[in-house]
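Feature request disguised as a bug: please show the residue count (153) next to Late embryogenesis abundant protein LEA-2 subgroup domain-containing protein in the output. Example input:
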Amino acid sequence: MSAKECGHHGKGRNKFRRRLLYGILFFILIVLITILLIWAILRPSKPRFILQDTTVYGFNASVPNFLTSSFQVTVSSRNPNDRIGIYYDRLDLYATYRNQQITPRTSLPPTYQGHKDVNVWSPFINGNMIPISPDFSTSLSSEQASGSVFSYH
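Example output, currently without the count:
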C-alpha cells in the first residue's frame, strides 16, 4: 500500500518559517526606528576646524631638491552639537605647498571636546630636508626670486 499525502503535514514547518521571518523583520524595523529617533533627537553635526594663524620660522629650498621648513600654526575646533561630545583619538597636521606635502605629520594629543566647546592647539610643524620634485623646486626658486615667497635663513 502506498501512503497518501493529506496536505496537512507541511503547514507547521511553513508557519514556523513565516513567524521567524516576521520576527526578524520586526526586530530590524525596531532597530531602524531606534536609530532614526536617536538621530532626530541628537542631530549630530561635524566639528568645524579653523586655521587661525601661521608663523613661518623657516622655508628654505636647497640643492638638490630638498626643502627645510618650520611653522607654528594655531588651529581651533568648534563642536556645534548641543548634546554630543567628541573624543579625538588621533589628529594629524602637516603643511602642504602647491599640493605637495612639505612636512611630516605632526600628531596632536588625544582630547575630549564637550558640547558647544572650542579647543585650540598651537603645534610646531617642522620638515627637515624633505625631498621635493624638480618642477616644484624650480617654481619655488622663481617665486622666491620674484618676491612671492619669502625665504628665511
